[in-house]
Amino acid sequence: MNSWLIPPGTRPAPAFARHLSLNGAVVVALLALVVLWTLPMATFYETPPWDNVEELFWGGSMQWGYYKHPPLPSWLMGLPVLLAGRQPWLTYAAGVGCGVGALYIMWRWSLGMMPPMRAALAVLLGSLVTYHVQRATIFNHNTVQLLPMAGYWWMLWRVLRRPSAGGRFDWLWLGVFAALSMLTKYSALVQFAVGAGFILREGSWRDARVRRDLLRAGGVALLLMAPHLAWLVQHGDQTIGYARHSVHPSGPLLKHVHPRLLRILLVQVARLSPMLLFVAWAWFTRERGTAQEKTPQGGFDRRFLAWATFGPLCLVLAMSVLLHMRLVASWLSTFFLPVAVWAVMVVPGLEADRWTRRRWVGTLTVAAILHIAGSFGQAWVDGVWSARHGYITRANLPSGQIAEAVQAVWHERAGDRPLKLMVGDTWFTGAVVLHMDPDVQLLIDGDPRTSPWLPPDALAREGGMVLILDTPEFRSEGALLEPLLATASCSGSLRLPWAGEDDARSVRVRWGILPGSDVQEELRGCLPAAAP
């Protein structure tokens, strides 16, 4: 610990006390990031991102699986939704919470490999990787997987480095984190494969204690995943089919798979750039002629971190080329969790335990400015500035105004009949429903299979209102929506300003009121439209 952290005229605190103080500072800083990145989004975003809207509805119903993904993110959102309702800010806080939770795990892991000040620097650099905080405001399966995947790498390191040391239960936690990673997204298999590759390359499998602990961890993981695996046997056609469609393009898209790899790599560099700039600055301004400290276990730690940092990226790139798999940049969100720890361990100039007070203050100040400017800047540009300058985004969709207009149409054409069910795509219609009565339900894409929280005959029995967004850039794509609209008792259209009045920058919506068998005969039709 540097002497500048100790007030003048006082005796140095014991090492344990200093460690507790630093641990508290790290925890407070991480919690501050949750608040800092939640408030601007909740303030300036009129409408949440697609995935956030989706999880607000999925979280309202506890299932063993959902038509696109495993259930853990929706489970995490379930209790907050139950307590506070479908509030968008919950998704921003939960997403960033998963990201900073992963950073805290990296902090605990780093303490086993390097001095506390270097571990703190690794956390600071990790917070500048956009996947870990900035993009974590998008609450989806990639974001949630940051947390258990960080735990997986930490526990695998402990199992391999000191198998069964001191009666610990690292194997148990390894199984728990592996199961939670799979219950979040099946792409965890990529990082499991990298871990297995390291075990083979290192020869750790020859140790009977390692084999025993890995088998125990596998048993724990299978036990925790058993209910979801049983669900998958019955509903795998949806989930596996979605995954297969996502990674295997067809038709003309296939020709663009290889050129896209370069673009994806450039996107990764861009999303790592805040951290990379800090690392480059530290390297160029380092003290020349000083050797980096090495720990007795440094060789194993560096090899492990190198595999965990670069292995998943190399593996998916090779799979994309050899198997003609499609890649999306955001699918790599969890691949860079150890990159800051690896950098602090191997890059000269990042020996933070030797830094002066001035160097630390400058680093912390610049990092704080980046987070404050990033959070408020991103939220204001996407949610406010873009609309004022004629650019439509998901963040500036006037979903509250649309909800008012839709409800006005319903009361005008359906009278006192309560609106119970909205039918439409996840993002647009879901965003509109967020501004309605909490009892209004959403039938996603008009397909009962995508909304298992509703009885299969809910639409036929209760009726409802279908919405189709025709604004070109964000057009609704549900295949069943057009046929449902054709069966409406009455239909019409709405047009509202979005970021302008023309076709490309306004909200253009077609609506239809669907009859229900439980509705009294005289109310199944629509009242005549009010005279202009």
TrEMBL record:
Gene Ontology terms describing biological process: lipopolysaccharide biosynthetic process
Location (main, coarse): membrane
Domain Glycosyltransferase RgtA/B/C/D-like per the UniProt entry, residue ranges: 68-231
GO MF entry, a single one: pentosyltransferase activity
Annotated transmembrane regions: 20-39, 89-107, 171-194, 214-233, 261-284, 304-323, 329-348
Keyword terms of this UniProt record: Cell membrane, Glycosyltransferase, Membrane, Transferase, Transmembrane, Transmembrane helix
Protein name, entry field: Glycosyltransferase RgtA/B/C/D-like domain-containing protein
Gene source species: Variovorax guangxiensis
